[in-house]
Amino acid sequence: MVVEAIRQDVPPPAGARPRGRWRRWLLAFAVVALLAEMAIAMLSTAVGQTPTIDEPVYVGAAVFSLEHHSLRYNPEHPPLGKLIIATGLAFADVHVDAGFAGDQSQLGRYVLYESGHDPGRLMLLARLPVIVLTLLFGLVVFTFARDLAGPRGGVVALALYAFSPDLVAHGSLATLDVPVAGFLVTSAWLLWRARHRPVRYLPLAGLALGAAVATKMSALAAVPVVLLLAVLSVRQARRASGPQRTLRHLGAGAAAALGVAAIAVAVVWGAYLVVDPQLRWAPPDLPPAEGLRALAGLLPLPEPYLDGMRVQFGFEDQVWTTFLFGSVHVGALWYYLPAALLVKTPLGALALWVAGAAAMAAVPRLRAAAPYVLLPAAVLLAAAMTGSRDLGVRYVLFLPMFLAVAAAGVVAVRRRWASVAVVALVAFTAVSSLRTFPYYLPYANEAFGGPAQTHRQLHDSNVDWGQDLGRLADRLKQRYPGERVWLVYKGSGVPSFYGIDAADPLAVPPDAVHGLLVVSDSAIVKADDRLSGLLRTSTPIDEVGHSITIHRRP
After folding, report:
1. Closest by alpha carbon to 5, among 36, 27, 26, 38?
2. How far apart (Å, rounded) are the C-alpha atoms in residues 283 and 303?
3. I want to staple 172 with a disulfide (CB 3.0 to 4.6 A). Which of 46, 309, 520, 546 is the partner?
4. Which of 27, 247, 289 is nearest to 157 (CA)?
5. pLDDT tens-digit readout, 404-415
6. What is the CA radius of gyration of the chain?
């Protein structure tokens, strides 16, 4: 697959073949090396981390849905992402009784900690399919950028992708954020190729769009853009075949867009039918759908999908707490995601993103690609910024993918200084990313103090998602054996399973809390008066994974 991804469409002249062959091998080596580095980083991260908050829910739903052909659990997310996770869990032979009566969080806890299996092995099996998919999306980013800016542009884009701390962090988790982002980028790339071969690539673009919509409902925001790009691609293809009337162009484009939409809808139905061919569905208690939201019920999608949208609407109607730049806010901040990206993105990558977007506007041969790269990214970002849950940059992981492709455009600037700047900025990005190993989830760039200071700027999945419970257990055994431990942990792991014998400091009078006070950093930034009082009279003495702080309380 790598060889196909780097193959050039036009063979070199006969006299240049030895040199051209050498360049192709060098290019193949660069691609393999970058993907290997990313694979090592993700595998190391996956092995070293305990379950994050969302993962047990997806793992439990994946096991239950396949074993019992049931759509009962986690209806707020379509099934395709969980089916991908299930391909790894198929090797674990996990079983859940059909009469299990707990909620989805209890189901995840049962599968991981009460089914008799090793949770570390189960989590690695669940994470491996997402790791493989993340690497394949790296090839998509490389090929997309190579199509626009040549082999050097492809390598630049792949380097930014492979060294993105956010993509490494979330690509190593059994969650849905990287898969949905990757499917959207794949759809845009296929539509770009459809400008020359619409019959081949438009159906594939429909499959990729359907995969995104069948993975996470937030992908619905991309549907109008993808259909518009389908019209644009067909218009370009028909222009290339000869002069025709504008109405014919538009008619053919509209027909192509309908075909892409029909294929995408079929993929969504297929994902649900794989789980349950009979589509048996007992709707949970659902919030009312009013106003424009009621129109969602007209979409030609399965009833469980439409009801899942109503569950998501209910989440959006809740009031969530935001933490940004050291301040707690009640409710969402419209600028939260761009601000969080400034913290979570390597400085070299930020510079290349901006330069690449400018190059796509300034370089004539790149302008045609701008709608396929910048427009989906902008629309999806705008849609994400309207959400009420400011919980992390994981909601916009499509940006490091699309903007890595855009950054390849800097290679098209024919100036010596541009080549030197690109190499320097890519190297700066790589060094910044490698320095955070293996703590990719709490990464922050140098301007904000690095990963050790991320908890002062952001919270939740940006820094502390419950991933370091196992590391905490090791630290307590190594440095603080036999000491009294009081724990405020934000996560889905079970402390006692890892050998942590701890009590809840909020369940007893403050005067009874003495010894080690261990608190997740996300709990610290949103501490109530009770916890704040305990922290004020304690001394920080250690930290674990840049996400958990150990205090000593006399």
Report:
1. 27
2. 9
3. 46
4. 27
5. 999 999 998 888
6. 24
